[in-house]
Write a structure and sequence with these properties.
Shape: globular
Radius of gyration: 19 Å
Helix content: under 10%
Number of helices: 1
CATH topology: Beta-galactosidase, Chain A, domain 5
Amino acid sequence: MNQSILIKSACGKTEAKICPTRGFNLYSLLVSGTELLWADAGFLAGEASASGSGTPILFPIPGRLNGKTYRYGGVEYDLESDDGNGNAIHGFVLDRPWRLLENSESTIVGEFQASVDAPEILKQWPSDFIIRCRYTAVADGINAQYEVINPDEKELPCGLGTHAYFRVVLGENNGSDSIISCPVSERWILEHMLATGEVVPLEATESFANGAKFSELQLDDVFSGITFVDGRAAASIEDVSAGRTMRYSWDEACEICVIYTPPHREAICMEPYTLVPGGLAFDTGEHGLIVLRPGESFSHAMEIVLDSSDAQ
């Protein structure tokens, strides 16, 4: 059985469980007795995919790479990953053990460094990297902060994403009347689940800005044109029958959002990315590729809460 660590908010209304040994995955978030995240029953035992439960952290590539090799600076790297169709997927850190840097009642901090925690990665990527994650339980949910650092003497090309599985049932009903909202306005054209570079505006009937019924959604798509208000994007799941709303927000570091409805239909994934899937094949920087020089870093923050009116 993998390690599981519980953190709680000071008031005791929020309980979050993190598995450091499976990618520092936040796999349970209980707010006033309501579970907001979905995880496979076999996740902790290692019997289920690390990318299919809780909140997988995707780095240094979110989504798929076009093929299993990546060429950078004239050197070709073999990622030794396969999505079943010959493409590397979701990077190196979502299924490996992380080290604990801090663990208090309400906060936990984990770190993964390629050269320290999995030196074999250094043959698969242009440089070493450090990624840190801090989860803090608050009264009505959780705050997450991510930091990526280049400790190497070489450039670090990278992208970051999270892949949270949000429950669509926040009460005792079947979730068929849940309303999904996400402030996106464009969709990327995909071929074999990879972005072609073509972006089209969403039709009014496709828009999530004012909410869409979960029962009518069947998605594994890439969106952009995100509306940020005061530097934050705001998405939500409203379980109409239960009278509860989960709110999800993130900062401007992630201008791409993948939305995915798993076949089991018990959850929906809204996945903020810094880099469009397949974007490593495009020109540097144009589609979100981040290149850190030695010593440089970048950060990202997100928040998951149950409406304060629901979390009493």
